[in-house]
Structures are given as C-alpha cells and as structure tokens.
Automatic annotation (TrEMBL):
This is DUF1918 domain-containing protein. It comes from Halostagnicola larsenii XH-48. The lineage of its organism: Archaea, Methanobacteriati, Methanobacteriota, Stenosarchaea group, Halobacteria. Residues 53-69 have a biased composition (Acidic residues). Residues 43-69 are annotated as: Disordered.
Length: 69
C-alpha cells in the first residue's frame, strides 16, 4: 500500500521516538530503484526516510492535533 502527502499514518519503528504515534505525511521520495520513503510530521517533530513497511494507515478518528487548530 502506498501513501500520499497529507495522509495520517501510524509509525511502527521501535528505534524511533515517535513509535506508535500518528503523524501526517509531508513528503514522499522515490529512489532510482523505485523504493519510496516518506517524511512524517508529528506534533513534536518529524521523521525522515521512513520506509513504507513501517507505516500503517491511521484510523479515521486518530487525526493529529494540527487539524484542530
């Protein structure tokens, strides 16, 4: 499953301080080999170079606080 910019996703990376948090995709990057990585924005920062297999679509009710302002 691929993701698009502005989609809400859950990050699953035990080495990240944002593991298990919902964030918003702010950028997608494709390598010359066809691999896609993402930059995810969270309330307290961002994570770059996230592979697709570390992401899961967020439930519809799990939007970030950025949308409430």
């Amino acid at each position: 499953m691929s993701f698009e910019e502005d989609e809400h996703v859950v990050l699953h990376d035990k080495h990240s301080e944002f593991d298990g948090e919902v964030g918003t995709i702010t950028q997608t990057m494709e390598s010359m080999f066809g691999d896609v990585t993402y930059t995810i924005s969270f309330e307290d920062g961002q994570e770059s170079g996230v592979p697709e297999d570390a992401l899961e679509a967020a439930p519809d009710d799990a939007e970030t606080d950025d949308d409430d302002e």
